[in-house]
Design goal:
This protein has 340 residues and is an alpha/beta fold. The chain has a 6-stranded mixed β-sheet, sandwiched between helices. Strands 8-7-6-11-12 form a 5-stranded mixed β-sheet, sandwiched between helices. The chain has a two-stranded antiparallel sheet with strand order 9-10. The protein folds into 2 domains: 167 residues, Nucleotidyltransferase, domain 5, CATH 3.30.420.40; 160 residues, 2-Layer Sandwich (Nucleotidyltransferase, domain 5). 49% of the residues are buried. Helix 1 runs parallel beside helix 2. The protein binds adenosine-5'-triphosphate and fe (ii) ion. The site of fe (ii) ion (FE2) has 5 residues, from helix 3. Fe (ii) ion binds next to helix 3.
Length: 340
Amino acid sequence: MICLGIESTAHTFGAGIVRQEGSSVEILANVKDTYTSEKAGIVPKEAAEHHINCFDRIIRQALSDAKIRVSDIDLISFSQGPGLGPCLRIGAFVARSLACALEKPIIGVNHCIAHLEIGRLATNASDPVLMYASGANTQIIAFEGGKYRIFGETLDMGIGNMIDTFARHMGIGFPGGPKIYQLSLGGRKYIKLPYAVKGMDVSFSGILTNIQQKYDSKKYSAEDLCYSLQETIFAMLVEVSERAMAHCGKSELVLGGGVACNKRLQEMAGIMCAERHAKAYFPPPDLLVDNGAMIAWLGLLEHLSGVRMKISETGIRPYERTDDIDAKWHSEKKKYFIKE
Ligand code: ATP
Ligand code: FE2
């Protein structure tokens, strides 16, 4: 079965094509284009405009990479939520139009769970805790009692948005994550910042204000500030992840989201897991950031477990929660492997 997955929750418009035959899974294509703005944060209307302007090219490129015709597609899936309404609407519209024109089934999927499922597939982890660290989202998720439940999350902004906002404050552009990482490598001194773990949750807005004030005071080098920022906020994520692993009795940790591309975060997660005789898994960067292949894969998983949607059920869900979803495919415990 071949699924075309469409991602459009925020900056990225992505189209992924995944083929499943028995337990074998092949990512045939994973194409994307990302809206960027140097000065402001994301302007939802502009990002939606970006998606309108590129969807045709991205989908054609995906079909060409996959070496299939549009008529070979058996299923269309798209990100139904959570995300920015104007952006989600474009992906949903494109998916619905294709499904109607091709007379193929359509399925709307949860974006956060897609990060988790592609991580499980790419790493062969079976029942992990997911540390999901992206622009807008920061959640610690695990499967318990038939659902993916959020064990901890940010109480205010997402970790990536926080990093990107600080990068903009320093005038080093967007996306800030890779640039802050580069600067952190030159850091020598740890500068104390607020550490904001509240139970299983984390908070970033106070740390952002504090580090912006420190930067403006000109008393500290950008390198030391970036180093200290990473050490502090990544330690917070690692702490809550470890607590979720202990609480659920799970011995695998999978990282997801664009911020999880950061090598220092991966290193810290690896050290924590090694100390508790657990295993940390890091999917490749093109599957960590927002992408269409993860949406195609979750669409396939849901379809294979019997989920069907009518067009009338494919409205967007900008505020959908991870624990709103009945993850029945997970309970079936089927194993899939990426075909090399
Ligand atoms: P959502 O929150 O809906 O998942 P998003 O578009 O913000 O959407 P991602 O693409 O998963 O999410 O992540 C974007 C974040 O990842 C940005 O904050 C960016 O700075 C960071 N990032 C991307 N690549 C890297 C990298 N190589 N190293 C460090 N950070 C990175
Ligand atoms: Fe994401």
